[in-house]
């Protein structure tokens, strides 16, 4: 029984295209294709390395064009979805600042350097605002002149 000649075709896996033949019921990848095109030199090499394979370059070029278009649509769909989820995530980002310990509790970490910078600016603004405001435990008094009191180790302080 004589084996019939194999046909080459294009497959795509994990974002890459391959020139493939079917051999003993399994796909055998002959070459990885870059930029969705095969150079003339690569075509000559394939004919020389695989003389028993039928290469229909017109059909292969058509398959590459289809794969390129499918990948382009997939990438544009993924980018649109990622930007939408990123904007939703940034709306839901929140944090709590504990001024006594100067600790920040957040529901996540900003994904960009600009987000981290904005978070630090907000914390510094809150911290400065709390330092300028009088403490809540003491009543608001009129301003007094600052005074300096010297204290010795063994003696008690005198006003």
Which terms would index this structure?
159 residues, 42% helix, two-stranded antiparallel sheet, 4-stranded mixed sheet, 3 helices
Q: Helices, strands, pairings?
A:
Elements (H helix, E strand, L loop, with lengths): L5 E8 L2 E8 L2 E8 L6 H10 L3 E2 L2 H36 L2 E4 L4 E4 L6 H20 L27
Parallel strand pairs: 1-4
Antiparallel strand pairs: 1-2, 2-3, 5-6
Characterization of this structure:
This protein has helices at residues 40-49, 57-92, 113-132, and strands spanning 6-13, 16-23, 26-33, 53-54, 95-98, 103-106. It has 159 residues and is of the alpha+beta class. It has two domains: 6-89, no CATH class; 93-132. The strands form two sheets. The chain has a four-stranded mixed β-sheet with strand order 3-2-1-4. The longest helix is centred in the middle third of the chain and has 36 residues, at 57-92. The relative contact order is 0.08.
């Amino acid at each position: 029984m004589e084996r019939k000649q194999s046909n080459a075709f294009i497959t795509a896996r994990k974002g890459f295209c391959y020139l493939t033949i079917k051999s003993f019921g399994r796909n055998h990848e002959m070459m990885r294709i870059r930029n969705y095109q095969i150079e003339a030199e690569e075509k000559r090499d394939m004919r020389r390395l695989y003389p028993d394979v039928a290469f229909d370059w017109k059909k292969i070029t058509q398959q590459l064009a289809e794969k390129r278009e499918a990948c382009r649509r997939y990438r544009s769909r993924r980018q649109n979805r990622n930007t939408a989820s990123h904007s939703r995530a940034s709306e839901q980002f929140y944090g709590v600042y504990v001024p006594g310990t100067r600790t920040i509790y957040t529901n996540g970490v900003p994904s960009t350097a600009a987000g981290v910078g904005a978070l630090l600016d907000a914390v510094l603004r809150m911290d400065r605002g709390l330092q300028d405001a009088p403490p809540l435990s003491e009543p608001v008094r009129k301003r007094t002149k600052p005074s300096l009191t010297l204290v010795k180790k063994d003696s008690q302080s005198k006003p």
